[in-house]
Amino acid sequence: MTWHRVARRIRVPLGFAFTAFFLWLARPTPAFLTASLALVVPGLWLRGYASGYVKKNAELTVTGPYAHTRNPLYLGSMLIAFGFALAARSIWVAIVLVVLFLVIYLPVIRSEEQYLRSTFPQFNAYAAHVPRLLPRFTAATGTAAPASFSGALYRKHREYNALTGAAGLYAALILKWIFLK
Fold first, then answer.
1. Which of 109, 152, 103 has the alpha carbon at shortest distance from 133?
2. Total tally of structural domains belonging to the chain
């Protein structure tokens, strides 16, 4: 079994294990909890916005946030994760996050790109104009018909779970701050 397949399978369970590690090391304060919102809120928005455009495995999505970055869902996840690392005030949390993204998400992204390249002939042209992760400021233009955000897709992908999870994590951090200050 190749590493990208292993990475795909372990990324969600590893996320739960990392959450326990994160909460163990977290030393939140009101100032850092507030500052973390500057990354977490845009990350949640980006994930929600992207999920309302993507039609996984059915078509190559090139509109909405996908006209700025090929991986808005992963970019949103990174913003959320590093926002929570800021809230935790732990260099170890930040270091482990960087390692996890390099070891888990980079191979997964590359594997997904191989799939998209083999499934959608227009992927190479799209990839030539849209960066993998860090977004371009202006939307890439292409031959795709304009699309708009779909609430039905947002619900189908259950992206509201990210918002629920973030709220739960903030609640745990606030409780940790209250009881362990």
1. 109
2. 1
